[in-house]
Write a structure and sequence with these properties.
The complex is a heterodimer of chains A (about 130) and B (about 325). Chain A has about 130 residues and is mostly helical. Chain A is about 95% helix and about 0% strand. Chain B has helices at about 30-45, 65-75, 90-95, 105-115, 130-140, 165-170, 200-205, 220-230; strands at about 15-20, 50-55, 80-85, 120-125, 130, 145-150, 155, 195-200, 235, 240-245, 280, 290-295, 300, 320. The chains are: A mainly alpha (about 130), B alpha/beta (about 325).
Chain lengths: ~130, ~325
């Protein structure tokens, strides 16, 4: 009898109150789920955007690092060349220093000899006058 | 009896020494005679064909020549192995580029190197005794050409009454004056003037010690090592020491005596770049063009001639050393002022 009544109500588009409440609960839960999934989807979308942005930033950073590596290598080469030039310059400086020592020594010796010669000359002149 | 010459008519080794009777460092003649007696005896006892080339550089007029006394002072010295060169004092004056440097020691040594006949030439000093390993190397035929041999120096404080020096005296640790010198690659420098052994041909190839830089005496010995490395020679420790009798006035005893007034030092300014530059001596190095006049057998006067005096300033002959493949890069810049 109960089954017949339920079928008749169903034919009219009606359900028993208990069934209605259960369905209503299920629907509410599904709505809540949908809402939850929607917010998850929003969060995922936001995270995705963030990751894409991060990816872009990382890509740019990688490009910058790559450029820096190229710059570093170039700088390293310039540094090596500069060190080579510095060694060469120091060597030249040493040679110049040594040559200056010789010139200074010669100048001093010639100065002493010139003074001695002039003194002799003068004493000779005084003696003869 | 020691053969005077080797199989090819030349001594194995020429000992090139220089000095004069000026009382340098106290009893110069006494130290010289003791060392000469010892070294000659050792070479004779081991049968090493050798000659002693002595350059009496610019001797004082008021004192007798060392040559006049040496055979009385060292009676067993064989006159036939000695060749004496007495160099006119005018050379010292004409060559000097620093009046405070009163003894152009390495110029004097070049006079001996240029005239030495030995297959190997050992330039050393009058108060240096050869050690056992040095004598072994001269005896066992292990010396090689194009290798400049060095020996570390052990300084000795000998008792004042020491008349005869023998192995017991030399090897007595109680006589050691401080720690022994250590030779460090690549130059193996340190007291280089006391021991440079090289085959004669190579010595001639590099034209001896630096004659271009006559402003200092100190560092000229080290500079020959730079020249040798730059010329592609090896520098090796011979494996044992030579012994040096300490005396007053030596650089070793008071290297900082002229700190702050280096230009006044009797050995010149020790800070010059002896490790950083090389040289090319003129072809007449060692006073080769100087007229030599035999006074008595075995003794020659090197008379003065301007023809033998190199230019006062010849800057092209100061050159940079060459870095040889696989060898250390020579040169180290030392700031002077």
């Amino acid at each position: 009898m109960k089954g017949l009544l339920i079928r008749l109500l169903a034919a009219m588009g009606l359900v028993p109150a208990g069934r209605y409440r259960a369905l209503r609960r299920a629907m509410d839960e599904m709505k809540a789920d949908a809402q939850s999934w929607r917010s998850k989807a929003h969060r995922a979308e936001a995270r995705c955007e963030k990751l894409l942005a991060e990816n872009k930033r990382q890509t740019q950073a990688a490009e910058r690092t790559q450029q820096q590596a190229v710059d570093y290598n170039a700088m390293q080469e310039r540094l090596t060349a500069a060190e080579r030039d510095l060694v060469a310059a120091r060597e030249q400086l040493m040679a110049v220093d040594v040559k200056l020592d010789i010139l200074e020594g010669a100048a001093n010796v010639l100065d002493v000899r010139t003074r001695a010669a002039i003194t002799r000359q003068h004493s000779g002149t005084s003696a003869s006058s | 009896m020691t053969p005077l010459t080797g199989t090819n008519g030349e001594p194995l080794v020429s000992l090139v020494l220089t000095g004069r009777n000026d009382g340098y460092g106290g009893d110069f003649a006494g130290r010289f005679h003791r060392a000469l007696r010892f070294n000659h005896r050792q070479l004779v006892s081991r049968g090493v064909p050798h000659e002693i080339v002595f350059v009496e550089w610019a001797p004082p007029r008021e004192a007798p020549l060392l040559f006049d006394r040496v055979f009385d002072a060292v009676p067993d010295l064989d006159r036939r192995v000695c060749t004496w060169y007495v160099v006119d004092p005018q050379y010292q004056q004409a060559l000097s580029l620093n009046p405070r440097v009163e003894y152009l020691e390495f110029f004097a040594k070049n006079v001996g190197i240029r005239r030495a006949r030995g297959r190997f030439v050992l330039t050393t000093n009058c108060d240096v005794y050869m050690g056992r390993r040095v004598l072994d190397a001269l005896t066992d035929g292990s010396l090689r050409p194009r290798v400049l041999y060095r020996a570390p120096r052990h300084d000795l404080d000998l008792p004042a009454e020491t008349a005869i020096v023998d192995w017991d005296v030399l090897e007595d640790p109680g006589n050691l004056a401080g720690p022994a010198h250590v030779l460090k690659p690549p130059y193996m420098g340190s007291a280089t003037g006391d021991f440079v052994l090289l085959d004669r041909e190579s010595f001639h190839e590099i034209r001896g010690f630096n004659e271009v830089y006559r402003v200092a005496r100190i560092g000229i010995d080290r500079n020959v090592l730079v020249k040798a490395l730059s010329s592609g020679y090896a520098i090796e420790d011979i494996g044992g020491p030579v012994y040096h009798e300490n005396h007053e006035g030596s650089y070793r005893l008071n290297p900082a005596a002229y700190a702050g007034r280096e230009a006044d030092a009797p050995w010149g300014d020790r800070r010059w770049h002896s490790s950083g530059v090389s040289y090319v001596n003129p072809p007449g190095w060692g006073l080769a063009p100087a007229p030599a006049r035999q006074v008595v057998h075995g003794c020659w006067n090197i008379d003065f001639s301007w023809d033998a005096v190199p230019k006062m300033v010849d800057l092209r002959r100061v050159v940079l050393p060459v870095a040889r493949h696989g060898r250390p890069h020579p040169g180290m810049y030392v700031k002077k002022h």
